[in-house]
Design goal:
Elements lengths: L2 E5 L3 H13 L3 E5 L6 H6 L12 H12 L4 E5 L8 H5 L3 E4 L4 H14 L3 E6 L6 E7 L14 H10 L6 H12 L4 H18 L6 E7 L6 E6 L18 E7 L5 E2 L3 E2 H7 L10 E7 L8
Parallel strand pairs: 1-2, 1-4, 2-3, 4-5
Antiparallel strand pairs: 5-6, 6-7, 7-8, 9-10, 9-11, 9-12
Helix pairs in contact: 1-8
The structure holds zinc ion (2 copies).
Amino acid sequence: MRRVMLVGIGALGSELAIKLGLLGCEQVFIADADLLEEKNICRSELWSDTVPGMPKVITALPCLRARFPATRWEGASVEIADVDPVRFAESDILFSCVDTDLARTEIAAIAGHYVLPVCDAGVGGTSTQLGRVSWFPHERSAACFACLLSSRRRASLLSAWESDVHACWSEETEERSSWTSAARMTSLVSSLQIDVAVSTSTSKCDAFSIHLDLDRQEIAEKIRHSRSDVCPLHDELSGELFPVCTRAACIACGAQFFPQRRVGWVRRWGSCPACGAGSLLIKESRHDFAESAV
Ligand SMILES: [Zn+2]
Ligand SMILES: [Zn+2]
């Protein structure tokens, strides 16, 4: 586990970054498209003297470099789907500290494509006493995150890559806000995440999760996951990993154009070439994922 990619440096991810530094990793690449908010600054020592509104990654890197100079720290303020593919080839493992099922599904797709193991973690949910660490091996025969979802949920997430506008995104926002974190849980879960990765990455095993619930007498429970036969993320893909927008329309002026870029990118960053407006409709897209027939 010398070369690591870390996706998401919120409360949990920033704690994990520090632990990766303490562990003495040779190289850590961090991907996170979010900007720093006031609430992050009081939560993490990485941002104690920075200003809100800056990209999280850009402000975290100097602090990590200064504190752990033996590790090569790099990063980009982008979503995982926009990370330079070379970076995946350079990584031994993907740590996921994101907070939505959609982001976890994107990570599962990337990991499947580049044959990388994923160590995922989350805190919060219905209580600040809850946490979870999951291990997804690199073998295509093992379960990925999307295998754990119901067929319906998986189909809705895979189509959210493609479908237009905000119905599915507002659903994700609600889910995110119910997942809050307490400092103690964040520290505990990031330690467990490191421990699971270090103890599992060299052995061959099935996918599993460790659920933590500090309110229960048995605080930890291990659950094994088996692969879903209909999960489409295990097939070899010949084309694009993520849906590409082939035709878009401007809501403001009605102009149509052909972005040929990832749907997620167009939705987040795209603008009309005629009038510059940012509200666009995805009219056509292509992608290669489909639920396998049962
Ligand atoms: Zn799967
Ligand atoms: Zn326009």
